[in-house]
Specification:
alpha/beta, D-Maltodextrin-Binding Protein, domain 2, 3 domains, two-stranded antiparallel sheet, 9 helices
Length: about 290
């Protein structure tokens, strides 16, 4: 059993398509099939059901997959530990963040880049659910997000700040002069809202269900940048945390009253996993800002 075979197996299990998996691994389909067959022979178990051009994991494949992922992740962590001996002169750091954390993340990235110019930082923006999945799979080093974690026993969480759920309007909007507002006050306001995969949207849906209200939603988007630009036209408002638009000119965040309308931002590490020195340094900057 070889490490490369485990990597091929993981990619094939993810895509359930040998052609696509081979392309993703930069090898021929013949090489991929041969290596997977060798792995199955070593294990004396079929990992895939091959039905014509379709493939799916067998029961043995499903059982073996998390162990393969753990082995590959452990080897990468060991390699990273050796790379860290180079005193942060080179390397790569991969992190995930929800859009609400951009104002907090931006100055930390600038400071980190000035201090460690040889480290390449990759930032993945997405929903909390997607990012936590990538964290669990070892694809990113840590995550910055708003809201609760679905599997708290698998992570270590450090609080960053809290942010009030707010009605976001253009500064010339008729409601822009309000100091506070309630959900009942905005049921007639045309809204563009974040998509259902966003934690903020789930938070909103929970509250309006509890209060038995129906909002006037005209659009939903999975891109916060576009959503904010639509609000800047003055034709619509949206509901986000105040932190999400804290650096946006021309907008007003009106706090939505209610003791439960506050969301917590956190820095999330995978539990019991090796932490890169570069990730620790960036984490320190994020905690300071």
């Amino acid at each position: 059993m070889e490490l490369r075979q485990l990597k091929y197996f993981i990619k094939a299990a993810e895509l359930l398509n040998f052609t696509a998996a081979a392309e993703a691994c930069f090898i021929t389909q013949g090489t991929l099939s041969q290596q997977l067959k060798q792995l199955e022979n070593d294990l004396n178990m079929l990992l895939f059901d091959r039905i014509g051009k379709r493939v799916k994991l067998t029961e043995a494949g499903k059982v073996f997959l998390p162990f393969a992922q753990h082995t590959v992740a452990a080897s990468q962590q060991g390699k990273q530990a050796l790379n860290d001996l180079q005193n942060l002169k080179t390397g790569e750091l991969k992190i995930g963040a929800t859009h609400a954390l951009i104002p907090r993340l931006t100055p930390a990235l600038i400071a980190f880049s000035e201090k460690f110019p040889g480290i390449i930082v990759s930032v993945e923006f997405g929903t909390s659910e997607v990012l936590l999945g990538q964290l669990e799979e070892g694809l990113i080093d840590f995550v910055l997000l708003l809201g609760k974690v679905s599997k708290p026993e698998q992570v270590v969480s450090y609080p960053l700040f809290t942010s009030q759920l707010s009605l976001i309007v253009k500064n010339t909007h008729p409601l822009a002069g309000r100091r506070k507002i309630s959900f009942k006050d905005i049921v007639q306001v045309p809204l563009v809202l974040p998509g259902k995969g966003f934690h903020t949207r789930k938070f909103i849906n929970k509250i309006i269900q509890q209060e038995q209200l129906k909002l006037d939603m005209r659009m939903e988007l999975n891109d916060i940048h576009t959503l904010v630009n639509l609000v800047k036209t003055g034709k619509w408002a949206t509901i986000l945390t105040a932190a999400t638009v804290s650096k946006q000119e021309g907008l007003k965040a009106i706090p939505i009253g209610g003791k439960d309308n506050v969301m917590k931002a956190s820095l999330i590490w995978p539990k019991d996993a090796y932490r890169k020195k570069s990730a620790i340094e960036l984490g320190k900057l994020l905690m300071e800002k």
